[in-house]
Design a protein that fits this description.
Blueprint: E1 5-11, E2 17-23, E3 30-36, E4 41-50, E5 55-56, E6 63-68, E7 74-80, E8 84-88
Antiparallel strand pairs: 1-2, 2-3, 3-4, 5-6, 6-7, 7-8
Length: about 90
């Protein structure tokens, strides 16, 4: 039985990059990867234990995602661009 589930895909408007997420273990924690469509390959970026939603910022320089806690509740909002940053949800 295949337990993989695709959650989201968000294309960076100004380049051939696409952030996409999938649950490959059936755990309802999603991993985010970045695909470079010019090469047709995923980059080395891997973000784990997310809700699967990916949103690029207005300038297409970073994307945002939500990390989940052990009970699958939203815990922190992170962004990846020039550096990884997080904000705790309160």
């Amino acid at each position: 039985m295949n337990t993989s589930s695709l959650a989201a895909a968000a294309t960076r408007p100004t380049t051939g990059l696409q952030a996409w997420s999938a649950d490959t273990k059936g755990s309802e924690y999603f991993s985010i990867r970045v695909r470079d469509w010019d090469s047709g390959k995923d980059r080395g970026d891997l973000v784990e234990e997310t809700d699967g939603v990916v949103v690029w910022n207005a300038g297409s320089t970073a994307f945002y995602y939500v990390k989940l806690d052990d009970n699958h509740r939203p815990m922190q909002v992170w962004n990846i661009g020039s550096a990884r940053r997080k904000r705790t949800i309160s």
